[in-house]
Amino acid sequence: MLTLICALDEQRAIGLKGHMLFRLRSDLQRFKALTVGHTVIMGRKTFASLPKGALPNRRNFVVSRSLSEAPAGTFLFRSPEAALQAAQDDKEIFVIGGSSIYEATLPLADRLCLTHILAKAPQADVFFPEVDFDQWKCTFQESHPADEQNEQPYIFADYIRI
Asked: I want to staple 7 with a disulfide (CB 3.0 to 4.6 A). Which of 46, 85, 115, 118 is the partner?
């Protein structure tokens, strides 16, 4: 199963200058719970944004045409298609960003695990691709208010392709 996982604001914004737009501890906890033990596919810039490098307890696949060697703890691929081919025997594969990797894999995705942040970032330079939700069925939805550890209200929502 190919799953795209992402936190996006009301305008589909997901990042600015290599950083996430909002601090949502619950989203990070959910991300970890869903992805541990699985393969994660990401672009070079997403990998560079990880504060401690490769994500522990996951197979880290980095897609880049410019890197000459795989960063520590990762496998390097030249295209999303090559990464997907290498992971084809995995029960579950998660695409974790960035924008061009999401764009390339959205047509192939079986599931979306989205955190809809109920706010608009003042600035953003990376966006999640537009989704035709007529092609998807919501299978899970859970609303949360802002609190001490989550600076904006948000909704966890999972979708499967119809």
From this structure: 115
